[in-house]
User: Fold these one by one.
Assistant:
Number 1:
Amino acid sequence: MRSICIINQKGGVGKTTTAVSIAAGLAKEGKTVLLVDTDPQGNVTHSLQMNCRFDLYHFITGKCSHLDCITTLGTNLDVLPSTETLTKLNTELAKQKNPEHVVKERFSSIRNYDYLIFDCAPSLGLLNQNIMLFANEAIIPVSTTYLSLTGLTYMEEAIKEINEHFKHTLQISHIVPTLHDKRNRTNRQMLSKLQEDHGKLVTEPIRINAKLAEAPASGKSIFTYDKNSRGAKDYGALVQTIMKGEEVKKTNVPISARVQQMMADVEMED
């Protein structure tokens, strides 16, 4: 199971649009996905027009199981929503003996998905630290503006510090240029700067597209709202890029494990 946090401490860079589009796109490709809304504003919950009795707050604080909170939105796609009750969670977490590991403890029992996608609030608070300590990948949406690139630097430093302090291995798997207008000179310059500094981590840009802004009002993902739009095509390409990571993980099996498997295969043949 791949656990991915969609995160950037800077707001307004398209995190929720990216999280919803990735989750819906992976589900469309046959992957089982749990999309987790970790923002007290409940942007995912509002974008998909969900009504829920229990939410992430109730699950993390042990008031119910994840099965009580999850809403199935379609084939292969479940959502664990959030509401304003999540604003109380940082206080609840701070009371725990090991506050940074509460999310890890609660989510470690969830194994029946190919992907867990966390839509994170624009913050480096205790909840986001928890999520980063559980996730094994980070995807960072970055609008192609100067200030957004500065936010990326802070995000990279935060991930490095968390990894070093807690001996964790969270990796930035993709940096996604968002809200990109190729007609804008600053946008073009910032995209070139991103590509120069971060190389293959930078995906193809998500072009600015009115349909992406309209989709949440209909309670649909971009693929359902307008599958022929530029937004659907760009996020579809991003989903394909993410899925290629599955093959990379398969080929990165340690040599010792490969040898053990070969030995087991020989024994079975005998």
Note: The radius of gyration is 19 Å.
Number 2:
Amino acid sequence: MSVDPTPLTLDLQPPASRAAALKVHCLINRRAGAGARAPQEAVEQAFAAQSPAVESVVRLCRHPQALAKMVREALASGADVVVAGGGDGTVSTVANLLVGTQVPLGVLPLGTLNHFAKDLGLPLDLTGAVEVICHGATKRVDVGEVNGHYFINNSSLGAYTEIVRVREQWRPRIGKWPAWLLGTLTVMRRFPILKLDLEIEGRWLRSYAPLLFVGNNVYQFAWPLLGARARLDEGCLSLLLTREAGRLALLRSAILVLRGQAELAPEIETTCIQSLTVHSRRRRLRVAVDGEILRLKPPLRYRPRPQALMVRVPAAQPGD
């Protein structure tokens, strides 16, 4: 598949050049991994230290279910930038409501992994992130879509979905990483197999797969860049599909992929696609969408949404 390598033009509009102040609404998920290290007062002070041409409102979200309502309130109040303060799940929730609008997303990376922020090249410290939100540039990036739900990182079925389900069940009691380990051990013991019919850009494939992974743009599957993306504006999806095999065969193939030898791993297929339809006889399928488990009715229709989301990014430097 050929992809136009021409970089997207950044829409530069420094706040200082505006007649009116830049209105920034920052919504912080109090449950995010680094939330305790960036309390509301610290975030307010970081925004207050910016140009007088920036007006900021900082709100804490103590219940994730209320986050979508707070985003709608920010849009209704005339916010110029809506900031998601939290991890990838928080950023995804806010992004879903900004897709297709002219209001850019700002990212305050307070989560554990912050994949989206890293792939955009955003600063991970509070001061640097706020500087980009207030004085950076605006860029259009892609999102993925499955049955009307958008994802900024990835969506999957099978083993990973079950790991997330077990993790969320046990995390309040034992913590995130022990819950991850428990989920992984549970899946290795049960080893779920999905019986699916896949339509991949007109090609039909009957699959008995432990895992189907769909990423927004081109994912790296080899170590040490595992899970990283060089760009978020290539207008495509990554597909990783595991075929039916025993545990040891899949483990061997996974090691080959991590070593950059995917062509020697017959149980794993990786490719870039423009469309994917997943058919199943099940009435509902558990689907992980940016870490959130949804129960969706098949067929699942995956497609990229090129340049559908506006994001604040570092301003281009002279000579870039």
Note: Helices lie at 40-48, 67-76, 88-98, 115-120, 126-135, 159-174, 176-190, 247-258.
Number 3:
Amino acid sequence: MFVAVVSDVGLLVGVRQSIRWISAEVRPLKICIVALAQIIAIFLITWLPIEVSAQVNIKYGWKILSQFFLCIGAFNIFTGVAASAFTLTLVALLLHRLFWPIAGRLFYQVARYKVVRNHKAMASLGAICMVFALPSLRGVVAGVLGWLITVFSGDLQTRPKAG
């Protein structure tokens, strides 16, 4: 129990220090290094003791040492889950740093040209989303969209009436 608690405290202190290290200057390479180090640390304190326990039990038949490593791995599972929350946050931060320059250009243009206030564009976007969300309704959505286009474009008034 003492070894598991010491490894828990050591991991959480290491995670905290690594996050402090990258908080001074947020760079994608630093974020990758810290996230990878945290994944390796989580792997070492959770999976490795359980694997060593199985190998010691199979190879040498030592029940006490096998039980010791198994308990360390079992007690560290919750610490691994807590450390994984920080790792997932770092991965989300990395994805944000990598893709924001591309996404930011798109969002700034949407705000600049006030696309949200353009009813025709939003209706078209909504219809496209409906087609992808409900593929079985493609025919219905296409028919309604075609009717809306003819209504909004004014083609109904310029056509001669039949009969």
Note: The mean pLDDT is 82.
Number 4:
Amino acid sequence: MFSRETSARCLEACHCAIRGSIEHLEQLSFSRAREELDREKVVLQEVKESLAASENDQVYNELYLFSAYVGLFQDYCSYWRLLSEGNFGKSWGALQDVQDSLRLIYKFWPKEECPAVLSYIERQCLEIEKLYPYKVFFSIGVEIQDIECSLCGKSMNSFDCEHIAGELYRGQLACGIAKNLVALNHVAVVTNPRDKRCVAMFEDSAGQFTLVRYLSGLLNQHAMRPLQFDRVQFRKIEVLADDLAAVGRNERCPCGSGKKFKKCCKDQGKVLRDHADLIGNEITVYDLMPS
């Protein structure tokens, strides 16, 4: 069947481009990593344009999925580049892009056929999120007049539109486009939103990015490769109070109690303070994507 043959050939080409890209990424060659993926995106588009008009929708949908697969690693490369450059605020947005791409791929890719590298990156992203200072998020509620279909331009609230938002139609994803914002209803503070981009931002030099900055340092010193980051492990360590001379009497105690240092651990001789270990492993792209 043409669909099966075309898909197998395109998918193997995607695997090859992604493996090559990650090899460059591990050496912090961000531009070369991106070039591998950009070329494959062009090839996929050329294959799509070469299809006969009579070809069934399955072929187009498969090509869309493979393009999203390559796009995921474009986002992944962007994340590590921004982290390496010290753009910590922007890197948070790129990290969310990676996870959005994962959700899209998981929706359409048969679970039993998903490459192992996807689940690895999913788990890695969740661990990396723990290094960031964002714990609460903002969510807005708005009143809109209508939702327009991205494919046919008709109202998705009418019977004239035959598309369902979030579904594929001949290699195109149907989306709802909000039209005519009427009012802003509310702004809520939440802890587990679907979109985590709306946060109170900090300067890249802020102390809140201490852990992220440490990971960036390991990356730039070639002490840890992007794929090598495995998890973060939080624990308490004991520090002698005399070693905390830089902590003022009226500052918050390093133990995390929220009390002033002078009314907490200052006179106890030792302080239990939070500590984070960044754990790596020796995994390679060929462990996750055998050639």
Note: DSSP finds seven helices and six strands in the chain.
